[in-house]
């Protein structure tokens, strides 16, 4: 099953074998039983570039990579051999080396078959496997494999480590792959960074007394990862302080003597572009803080895994089991564990501060919206007062206007009315109104009724459309109303039943 995944990733990966900008590098460290002349630590170290054509010579230590005669310096007691390869791109998995060189390293180092699958993953992973002897006692372990994939976060790196350790020869053979392990140019930010190999080499040499321990490189990987976490925490803290300074509502810590007040804050809230930039910065920083918190949690679990692994090794490794007290690596692990706890608490405090600023932003936006609503309400009130005045004036003048319009119609003949025979005194109404006056009422009354009916039909249509558009809300309101009424009726029924059951004294 693992072989199928391995072959698929092997075929789909990008392999850069010629003119690669960052050729593979190697680091070798070994320690002898007796001190070497001029070196009291009895340790030696070599490192350099490794071209594709030289990979096989380096693996078997021939040609220009042949060691000095063992009679001259003695046989190595412990050794660590590390190959470092820069990761090219993100997806698909990229290697700045040829496929043949990788296969040769994988075979010579006896790396586990799931190496490519774990290097291709985005989340953090770690596990180990033991190879026991077939001919000796069941407790005899000949070798161990360890695979570590740090969780991907471009500010910290995207590294993977696969190694095998032989307890017979006390030799660790490892392959390290990831962003900026060799390159000083960040693939995302386009900024200059310090390659990991510039720190890994000195760290290996500083612990050369433990170069034959299988957990040395995993611990160094954790230490380098933690150093980048600390750098990124400093950037987040500076950004959080800048955000607090922009809001000008926090007067604590380094901002205790900061200047600024409500006037600058109101100007900021009034500027939509600046407000949007600040919101983007705040949410981005908050997201980075949440991601960093998850990474530190993973590092804490990884540190615990390494401590448990030391206990497992002590059960079958004679050198580890005979050791009294803590080894150098166990002391380093305990120190890293404290650093991770401190980093976790620090990042949590940054997240809490950013949450406060996010709450401040929401409150300011809500306040700005409330102010806008208040201004709109005031303007609406002024408009309403103006409309009331206009309606009052219209109401006052409407009856006289209607009467004047009606009497000015041709259906009234005021001149003819004064000479009408039906009104001897000239004051009768029959002489003033023409006989066809009924036409006015016959047309205006049905037309008025038609307009009212049309308005009613339109209003019914609009109400139905509103009900369909806001069906969920109306149903919720109606359901709440029905539920309240049902609850009230149920309460009254319960009360009445209790009254019927209770005897009267």
UniProtKB/TrEMBL annotation:
Keywords from the named record: Membrane, Transmembrane, Transmembrane helix
Protein name per Swiss-Prot or TrEMBL: Uncharacterized protein
Membrane-spanning residues: 390-412, 432-458
Top-level taxon of origin: Eukaryota
Organism lineage string: Eukaryota, Fungi, Dikarya, Ascomycota, Pezizomycotina
